[in-house]
Amino acid sequence: MNTAPGVWYTFTGDGAIVTLNTCTGTSYDSKIGVFSGTCAALVCVTGNDDFCGLQSQVNFTSVIGTTYYVLVTGFGTASGAFTLTRTCVYPCTIALSSAPGTDAQSVCKNNAITNITYNTTVSTGATFTGLPAGVTGNWAANVVTISGTPSIAGVYNYTVTLVGCPSATTATGTITVSEPNVATISYPGSPYCSTVPAVPVVRTGTAGGTYSAAPAGLTINPATGTVSPQTSTAGTYTVTYSMAANGCPAASTTTTITITAAPNIIIFYAGNPYCSNSGTANVTRFGTPGGTYSSTAGLSITPATGAVNLGWKHARNIYSNLHGTGLRRLWHHANNNNDHDHGSTNSHDRIHRQSILLQCRNSECNAYGNTRRRNLQFNSGLNDQSNNGRNNAG
Questions:
Q1: Which residue has the higher pLDDT, 87 or 370?
Q2: Residues 155 and 199 in one domain
Q3: pLDDT at 279 exceeding the cut of 90
Q4: Strand, coil or helix: what is 349?
Q5: Inter-residue contact 60 to 15 (CB < 8 Å)
Q6: Do the domain assignments include residue 269?
Q7: What total number of domains does the chain contain?
Q8: What is d(CA 126, CA 128) in angstroms, rounded to the nearest whole number?
Q9: Does 382 or 155 have the greater pLDDT score?
Q10: What is the pLDDT of residue 3?
């Protein structure tokens, strides 16, 4: 430091905050130097001149087990009587005493946390910030305890600050409070045709889970649950949504989805073209069953089977099995047109002796009667067409 005479002192550090001074009882301009290392290789820790007038003071935190060398000397060549005073203030300490990881724990909402404890020294108390609702902190006999049951989900970063310490002394940690793992999933439009490009899942509840499907054959995005019918095999699948433990127990939920193959059908009528009076034409089908048949207007087709009614059916010489209003009106029309035998007094009997042609299509029938002078017709419409030589009757 200089060539003035001086006195050396040594002590071993114990973690205290050390103050050395010559502020009182010193009669000259003094200086203080503090060193560590060895006598042969000293390392300067701190030093001071004129902190309190012409006297000196230094402050430093000692390291436990380290030997310190203290030199008291004078400025320039000054020397004289002095008093060296050393005071030690021990800092507060706080150290986790509960199990490792308890200061960074996850817990399910409305479930008690694992108690978090710290051992402290020197302090006279502690304050707490950042704890979740339902969780409290307490300091007693140099032990900090954090405990309780959190009631609101979230991530809580807490701080413990010791009271009565020479410098700020804190400890921090995190408590993560999770909602219970509860969710539902669905594919509301199921079944889906294999021509659909993408089908998103509808999910409620816990997010962040993963999706899987069984049996094999369904193309599904594990992260989003979106299904690709175009690249899936037709069938019914069970989709599982799995939620990992996050302070709350792991859980899963399921739903089903059905992929149907796109229709692949060929139909034809093997005898086409058909005669209009040849009865029924049956369809030949290859491929997906269960559909319905339809046509443009004018074709009589059975929707369930595809059978086509090809036209009128004929019956000739129908006599005594045709009774009732229709034939009586046919006879009446013939009488009005002088086309009957006036010697007959029974029109019902008279019409039975006529030659009758009956034509039917679906629910409509036309009957043609041959009198001596003209052909006469009736059908199910009950429309009187006497002016053109026809009488229609039901």
A1: 87
A2: no
A3: no
A4: helix
A5: no
A6: no
A7: 4
A8: 7
A9: 155
A10: 65
How would you classify the pairing of strands 355-361 and 313-316? antiparallel
Tokens read off for 313: 């059916």
CB neighbour list of residue 237: distance below 8 Å, 6 or more residues apart:
213, 214, 215, 217, 218, 256, 257, 258, 259
Shared-domain flag, residues 385 and 318: yes
CA distance readout (Å), 285 to 188, 260, 298, 306, 307: 32, 20, 22, 9, 11
Range of the domain at 188: 183-260
Residue at 128: amino acid letter: F
Give the Cα-Cα-Cα angle 253, 219, 216 (nearest 5 degrees): 75
Residues 181 and 202: beta-carbon distance below 8 Å: no
Query: What 3-state class would DSSP assign to 389?
Result: coil
* Amino acid 133: pLDDT: 97
Q: H/E element holding 326?
A: helix 325-336
Residue 291 included in any domain: no
Which of 305, 311, 304, 312 is closest to 269 using CA atoms? 305
Is the pLDDT confidence value at 36 over 90? yes
Whether 15 and 45 map to the same domain: the answer is: yes
Q: Are 160 and 208 part of one and the same domain?
A: no
Place of tokens 């049996």: 215
The answer to whether residue 205 scores a pLDDT higher than 80 is yes
Residue at which a domain ends, from 260, 276, 297: 260
Alpha carbon distance 219, 324 (integer Å): 70
Q: Strands 313-316 and 300-301: what pairing? A: unpaired
Residue 379 CA to residue 355 CA, distance in Å, equals 16
Q: How far apart are CA 169 and CA 171, in angstroms?
A: 7
Q: What is the pLDDT of residues 310-353, one digit of tens each?
A: 874 433 333 333 444 444 444 344 444 443 333 334 434 334 44
- Are residues 103 and 148 both part of a single domain? yes
CB 320 within 8 Å of CB 313: no
Tokens standing for residue 292: 């319905």
CB 303 within 8 A of CB 294: yes
Give per-residue pLDDT as tens, 118-152.
999 999 999 999 999 999 999 999 999 999 999 99
